[in-house]
């Protein structure tokens, strides 16, 4: 596996390992897991934690309407391990203060590090409910949501948002300032317009525009694959840190690699796939475990030159035993890795 050159490694490690204060709480480093529905579940986070190196993790988006009455023992999304709460932020999506405030209160009562408001998701089911990126079309509603959450809790409040619905970053800059004025503690910014489902490259200059507009920490997000990408985002935008999504699913050890100098083992891909399968089985009933493993294979398979063929083998699995057979028979130590993930697989 290609490792980063020593200078990049040292500069990146130094930049990432600067502790950061968010709303009065300290975070050990500046490389975080982005929230991802169907991928960033409790099982994945347990596997991720076994490598170490990740400053903050985020849950999958949870419905604000559901959170106040959700049962963590059976809920697929609103679920965690006690020992991760001190570095786990719960993300919620919703449209109104009446939905958001009680959800935020429950999140504080459960002991999460913080609460994150989703203003980035542009999936039609979410946008139709006036939640996620729909809030960016309606700044009054976005600010009302933020105000209600801020008033409801004293834990750190995060907003994850995008450029908006048009390419001009001006409205996002204005909103960022308003979020800060309303008491938001940290922003995570993904510089793409809302209808763009990660096909066009993110405009990282827009992260700089947001960073320069506010004095709270701004984390950059989007298309980080290599340590060089991460260093480039930090250095060219002045962002406080970086939030990594899909690549964290492809290679969960990257946090430890970039922050502690961890070197992945020869059998890392195979071991990871087995570990995730076992952990999914431990937390979820068989149908959901299988569905979640199959979603993971999109990003996992994108590591490999012949990723399509590996993925189709996984997709043919009828149960988790079939999944284990595919891992056993087809994940070898000599598989050719792609330099950047195979975008035909990965841009979903
Ligand atoms: C399958 C999938 C699910 C996602 N779910 C969420 C989500 O629940 N909340 C959210 O704010 N962003 C979500 N995102 C967006 C990611 O957090 C991130 O912004 C995006 O993937 C770009 O970062 P990356 O290039 O590092 O993956 C999701 C992305 C993917 C691929």
Description:
The protein has 348 residues and is an alpha/beta fold. The protein contains 15 helices and eleven strands. Strands 3, 4, 5, 6, 7, 8, 9, 10 and 11 form a nine-stranded parallel β-sheet that branches. Strands 1-2 form a two-stranded antiparallel ribbon. Helix 11 (268-283) runs antiparallel to helix 12 (286-301) and helix 12 (286-301) packs antiparallel against helix 13. Bound molecules: flavin mononucleotide. Flavin mononucleotide binds next to helix 9. Flavin mononucleotide (FMN) binds next to helix 9.
Give me the secondary-structure topology:
Elements: H1 6-16, E1 20-22, E2 25-27, E3 31-33, H2 42-51, E4 57-58, E5 62-63, E6 88-93, H3 97-110, E7 114-119, H4 124-127, H5 139-152, E8 157-164, H6 170-181, E9 186-193, H7 205-213, E10 218-221, H8 227-237, E11 241-244, H9 246-250, H10 254-260, H11 268-283, H12 286-301, H13 307-315, H14 320-330, H15 343-346
Parallel strand pairs: 3-11, 4-6, 5-6, 6-7, 7-8, 8-9, 9-10, 10-11
Antiparallel strand pairs: 1-2
The protein binds flavin mononucleotide.
């Amino acid at each position: 596996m290609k490792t980063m050159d020593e200078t990049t490694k040292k500069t990146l490690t130094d930049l990432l390992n600067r502790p950061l204060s968010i709303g009065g709480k300290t975070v050990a480093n500046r490389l975080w897991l982005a929230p991802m529905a169907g991928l960033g579940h409790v099982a994945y986070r347990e596997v991720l934690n076994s490598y170490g190196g990740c400053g903050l993790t985020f849950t999958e988006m949870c419905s604000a309407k559901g959170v106040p009455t959700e049962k963590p023992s059976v809920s697929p999304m609103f679920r965690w391990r006690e020992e991760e709460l001190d570095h786990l932020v719960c993300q919620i999506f919703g449209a109104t203060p009446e939905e958001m405030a009680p959800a935020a209160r429950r999140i504080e009562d459960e002991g999460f590090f913080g609460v994150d408001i989703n203003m980035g998701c542009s999936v039609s089911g979410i946008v139709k409910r006036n939640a996620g990126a729909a809030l960016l079309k309606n700044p009054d509603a976005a600010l009302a949501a933020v105000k209600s959450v801020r008033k409801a809790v004293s834990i750190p409040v995060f907003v994850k948002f995008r450029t908006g619905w048009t390419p001009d970053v001006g409205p996002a800059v204005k909103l960022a300032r308003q979020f800060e004025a309303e008491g938001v503690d940290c922003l995570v910014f993904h510089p793409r317009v809302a209808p763009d489902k990660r096909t066009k490259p993110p405009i990282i200059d827009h992260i700089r525009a947001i960073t320069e507009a506010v004095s709270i920490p701004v984390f950059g997000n989007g298309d980080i694959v290599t340590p060089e990408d991460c260093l480039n985002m930090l250095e060219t935008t002045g962002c406080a840190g970086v939030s990594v999504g899909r690549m964290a699913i492809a290679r969960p050890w990257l946090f430890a690699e970039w922050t502690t100098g961890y070197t992945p083992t020869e059998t890392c891909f195979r071991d990871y796939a087995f570990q995730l399968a076992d952990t999914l089985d431990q937390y979820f009933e068989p149908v959901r475990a299988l569905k979640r493993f199959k979603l993971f294979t999109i990003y996992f398979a994108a590591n490999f030159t012949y990723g399509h063929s590996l993925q189709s083998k996984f997709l043919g699995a009828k149960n988790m035993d079939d999944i284990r057979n595919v891992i056993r028979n087809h994940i070898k130590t000599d598989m050719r890795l792609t330099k950047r993930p195979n975008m035909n697989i990965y841009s979903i």
